[in-house]
Amino acid sequence: MAAMDHPVILVRDWKQTEAALLAARAAGTAPVLLTPEDAASFYGAGYLGALQERAREEFPDVAFTLIVDCGDAPGYALACLRAGVRTLSMRTWNDKIADIARQMGAELVRRPS
């Protein structure tokens, strides 16, 4: 797929997430939704897990990835995994978090630039 099929869109809340997914549905793209840096520390794992779940429920026909940024905080990354977040990024790569994520069916990725 071309890069255009996977646009990276910064999302801060449900309104922005919904708008991005509506646009993706109309365009037939599979967007990468990206939270702001350190989002896990100020939104909280529960909110971010719920945001991902609502998006999956309301847009089952749109293939998207939500990348939750956990800064340099392994505790926030673990909390997000427990809340059901499937894709995380951290400022500094963390092998332990990457391994735990894999074991939970999730993944640690590099933050798109």
Concise account of the structure shown:
The protein has helices spanning 14-27, 39-43, 45-58, 74-82, 95-103, and strands spanning 8-10, 32-34, 65-69, 87-89, 107-109. The protein has 113 residues and is α/β, with parallel strands linked by helices.
What labels describe this entry?
113 residues, alpha/beta, 5 helices, globular
General description of the model:
It is built from five helices and five strands, in the order βαβααβαβαβ. The model has no long low-confidence stretch (mean pLDDT 95). With 113 residues, the chain is of the alpha/beta class. It is globular. The two termini are 19 Å apart. The chain is 45% helix and 15% strand. It has a five-stranded parallel sheet, covered by helices on one side.
Beta strand % = 15-25%
Q: Care to count the β-strands? A: 5
* Radius of gyration (Å): 13 Å
Distance between the termini: 19 Å
Physical arrangement of strands within the biggest beta sheet? 1-2-3-4-5
Biggest sheet layout? 5 strands, parallel
Whole-number average pLDDT?
A: 95
Q: Which geometry do the CA atoms define?
A: globular
Element layout with pairings:
Layout: E1 8-10, H1 14-27, E2 32-34, H2 39-43, H3 45-58, E3 65-69, H4 74-82, E4 87-89, H5 95-103, E5 107-109
Parallel strand pairs: 1-2, 2-3, 3-4, 4-5
